[in-house]
Design goal:
This protein is mainly alpha-helical. Helix content is 66%, strand content 5%. It has 11 helices and 4 strands; from the N terminus they run αααβαβββααααααα. Helix 2 runs antiparallel to helix 7, helix 6 (139-154) packs across helix 9 and helix 9 (241-251) packs antiparallel against helix 11. It starts with a helix and ends with a helix.
């Protein structure tokens, strides 16, 4: 719950900075971003919502790779120094060639079993695995995990999730301000030239409430995307058995924590109860069942 709240507050902070920036632009260049005056300029509000909704999402995408390296302290393998590093690089290269994408950077980070892929572009992504995963899995299982992450890159999941997040942000900003205007002008009958307290309170409350609903939609799509990445690993490996074995092993271990920026692109994430609605990954059992169905 704390991570979700932090994520929502971070997005709200980004929106607040953008609102201030656009307000300054409006004053300096005469651009009309009417956020609740005597008349509601829906066109300007739509443009405002698009800018606010997508700017933060795309900034996060463009910064995803350097931020992932910094937050996980992942060490990129520039020149393999041992047999394991050589095998990792060659395995990723083989998967990337088969998937038709450019060679990603390969990195290792300290931590419990997990792995992730990130990056704004298919041909310059980052694939990273933890020391815990390398120590606890066989080579076939690690190869399947690497195939899963390469499938994320080949499927363009990073960009797709960014676009989806941008769309959700846009709707949250637009709808909350339209409702805020209605509450302020019609319900509370504010007749002044400036927005009243009803507008500001309503938009803040709705930004938070609709933000949680948007997070549920994004998480649902993310879970669908995990099944597709598992299937992509099977295609790259030529068999469903290594991926099934890797997932079964992960199911018996506590997944390593990843930073929020790359959490949804990790190999596993665990949450239950109501928090499952916000989970970026489906239960391990469901993923294994889907792979077994592929085999049949």
């Amino acid at each position: 719950m704390k991570r979700i709240a932090l994520f929502v507050l971070t997005n709200l902070a980004i929106m607040a900075v953008l609102v201030v920036t656009l307000t300054v632009l409006s004053a300096v260049f005469g651009i009309n971003f009417n956020l609740g005056g005597r008349t509601l300029d829906v066109g300007s509000l739509a443009i405002f919502s698009l800018v606010v909704g997508f700017t933060g999402a795309f900034i996060s995408l463009l910064m995803s790779k350097p931020m992932a390296k910094w937050t996980t302290r992942a060490q990129v393998i520039r020149q393999p120094s041992n047999a394991m590093e050589s095998w990792l690089v060659e395995t990723v290269r083989r998967h990337a060639d088969k998937a038709g994408i450019g060679m990603p950077e390969v990195a290792v980070f300290e931590g419990e079993p997990n792995a992730f892929a990130t990056g704004a572009f298919k041909n310059s992504a980052l694939v990273a695995v933890s020391t815990g995963l390398l120590q606890s899995m066989s080579k076939d299982e690690v190869e399947a995990v690497l195939g899963h992450e390469i499938a994320h890159v080949a499927n363009g999941d990073m960009v797709t999730m960014t676009l989806l997040q941008g769309v959700m942000n846009t709707f949250v900003v637009f709808i909350s301000r339209v409702i805020g205007y209605v509450v302020d002008r019609i319900v509370l009958r504010n007749e002044s030239d400036a927005p009243g307290i009803g507008y500001f309170v309503t938009t803040i409350v709705l930004d938070i409430a609709l933000g949680f609903l948007a997070a549920i939609v994004v998480a649902w799509f993310s879970r669908r995307r995990e099944f597709r990445a598992d299937a992509g690993a099977v295609e790259l490996m030529g068999s469903n058995r290594p991926m099934i074995n890797a997932l079964a092993r992960l199911g018996g271990m506590e997944p390593g924590e990843l930073p929020q920026q790359v959490k949804s692109f990790g190999i596993n994430s665990r949450s239950g109860g109501m928090m499952a609605l916000f989970s970026s990954h489906p239960p391990i059992e469901q993923r294994i069942a889907a792979l077994q169905a592929m085999g049949r």
